[in-house]
Amino acid sequence: MNNQHYIEKWLDGSLTESEKAAFEKTEEFHALQRMDAALKQFQPSPLNTERAFEGIKARRQKTAKVISVNWGMVYRIAAVLVVGLGLFFYLKTTLFKQTVNEIQYATLAGETKSVTLPDNTVVTLNALSSVTFSEENWSANRTINLEGEAYFDVVKGGSFQVITAAGKVTVLGTRFTVKDRPDFYEVICYEGRVEVKGSANAVQLTQHDFYREAGKTITKATVAGDSVPAWMNHESSFQSVPYYEVIRELERQYNISVQVKDVDTLQVFTGKFPNDNLTTALQTMTIPFNLSYQVNGREIVVFHGK
After folding, report:
1. What is the pTM of this model?
2. Measuring CA to CA, which residue among 101, 87, 72 is closest to residue 36?
3. What does the domain layout of the chain look like in residue ranges?
4. Is the alpha carbon torsion for 220, 226, 229, 230 positive or negative?
5. Can you name the CATH fold of 234-304?
6. Angle at CA of residue 116, ends 110 and 121, nearest 5°
7. Beta carbons within 10 angstroms of residue 44's beta carbon
8. How far apart are CA 210 and CA 128, in angstroms?
9. What is the pLDDT of residues 153-211, one digit of tens each?
10. Is CATH 2.60.120.1440 the classification given to domain 102-231?
């Protein structure tokens, strides 16, 4: 195989391992390496237009010289430059564009945080949650990606969408929460109207309605008439929620690990626990089921018996 064929296959990435080893021994390969190193170090100097013009006039007065050009090498170098420049502009115009305007906010265990979006919509994040959005053309595309749980106080305007792994919520102007945790997806409407598209057909929610997917169970019902989520007042509130989600919320609020022994984690729990007093929280969630617990540093064991 001639060297030109090696270069063509190298440019389109189709060299086999044996061909690559052979090509790396050629003079053309080493020339390309030297050119690549030189291009990486190349920094163009500022152009002095007056000096350049005078140089052109001086050269025109000299006798032209005939230069022998190796056109095969020129074509190969030009091909490498075209590929390199094409890759550079692709990265600049696509990958860089996708990330330069993207903003993310996140919370740690036991932390809440309020974020004001470009249209003055306020998003409050619960523990171990994050939102990501782009400021570019925000007024025409109000879309936000959520991991975890957040409360939204949306300013009226165009369509506002919250995207999670489990579903999509669409509103015009309202107040609601979205909670997307492993095996648990819940949307609660506190004011206005929202449309929820989870794993089933789209569902319309009005004030105090909630939509929930817990495992394979889908529920639409009405919650108590609270004006904001309980966790914004340093409590975690549950209405007929599987016990496994209550345990996980305890872990998120107190940055602990909870192990259960012989406990039915599918049984439902209704109640609240404080987010600032671990002892009270443990008592609140274990006493109703006649459970006991043991504290070992940051690990809690919940079990039946004394």
Report:
1. 0.67
2. 87
3. 1-40+72-100, 102-231, 234-304
4. negative
5. Phage tail protein beta-alpha-beta fold (3.55.50)
6. 115
7. 5
8. 22
9. 999 988 999 999 999 999 988 999 999 999 999 999 999 999 999 998 899 999 999 99
10. yes
